Amino acid sequence: MADVAEKAGVSRALVSIVFRGQPGASEQTRQRVLRVADEIGYRPDSAARLLARGRSRTLGVMFTVQQAFHTNLIEGIYPEAERLGYEVLLSGATQSRSEKKAVEALLSHRCEAVLLLGSFAEPAFLEELGGRTVAVSVSRRVPHAHVDFVHSAEGRGVRQAMDHLVELGHRRIVHLDGGRGPGSAERRRAYRAAMRRHGLEAEERVVPGEHTERSGIETGRLLLTERDGGRPLPTAVLAGNDRSAMGLLMALTRAGVEVPRDMSVVGYDDSHLSHLMPIGLTTVRQDAGLMAEHAVRFAVERLEDPRREPREAVVEPKMVVRGTSGPPPKR
């Protein structure tokens, strides 16, 4: 600021006024100061200014790098945070970087609150984190932890998908499980309940898996191997998420199985992946934008009012029918 003031021929106090947007400088002076700052490459350090006031006004977001749906959530987090006057800092978890390390990095950068997207962490970690800072868990509900929760109504989403397949005439419907993935237990229970409700208990089958493309590929190979051994293919597969559904589609396509003529495939999330195939993926849409808005608002409202207790928002899912579902093959 001293360099800008010297080159512009004004006081440092006047430079400060200009960068804070306060009255006290003529428009001509304001433009000269800004031009000089641009020439010498000076940018005001808004973070330092906020920290001097005891606030960073920054929301930290922990996400899993490989999860496409987390990208959708982040796209919704940025505009809502900006609208409320907050910055966003991202920290990714990978196979070699734990969630805990990603969260600690956010806290070390003085984020005032942490948004956890699809956390796999133990409930004890979430409970401990909720005691240290304002935290919001998105896509995963952990009872009794002192954090806000934002998630879709998993059971209703699966019921919509199962009703869609049964109405098309499917009976041999397999569920590709999501393992420990967020929402997987609820989706698994809802699948089994739907099979019982439709009188299809004898056809009920859950294939162990996880929310990855590899899991879908391996499930496809398993079903194809069973077919070669004489066991008929299921007529439909409800995958745990879009990523595993895409892996399954790849395995089936490579083996010459036509979707949906020979088998229908339904995903869950409606992430941007569902639009990238030559044939669109039938899936259950989680409203990422609305979930992001809830998460940011919950965090900010608790920051502005520390007496406010954590809350829960349940977002309604919606069935999106595209090209990977159709009537079962006639045999």
Describe the structure.
Keywords: DNA-binding, Transcription, Transcription regulation. One of its GO terms (molecular function) is DNA binding. Residues 304-315 have a biased composition (Basic and acidic residues). It comes from Streptomyces bottropensis. It holds the Pfam family LacI. The protein is α/β, with parallel strands linked by helices and 331 residues long. It has three domains: 1-44, lambda repressor-like DNA-binding domains (434 Repressor (Amino-terminal Domain)); 54-151 and 288-313, 3-Layer(aba) Sandwich (Rossmann fold), CATH 3.40.50.2300; 154-286, Response regulator (Rossmann fold), CATH 3.40.50.2300. The chain is 45% helix and 17% strand. The protein has twelve helices and twelve strands. The chain has helices at 2-8, 12-20, 27-40, 46-52, 68-83, 99-108, 123-132, 154-168, 184-197, 213-228, 242-254, 288-304, and strands at residues 58-64, 87-93, 113-117, 134-138, 148-152, 173-176, 205-207, 236-239, 264-269, 282-285, 312-315, 318-320. Strands 2-1-3-4-5-11 form a six-stranded parallel β-sheet, sandwiched between helices. It has a six-stranded mixed β-sheet with strand order 7-6-8-9-10-12, with helices on both faces. Strand 1 (58-64), helix 5 (68-83) and strand 2 form a beta-alpha-beta unit. Helix 8 (154-168) packs parallel to helix 9 and helix 10 (213-228) crosses helix 11 (242-254). The longest helix has 17 residues, at 288-304. The termini are far apart. The model has no long low-confidence stretch (mean pLDDT 92).
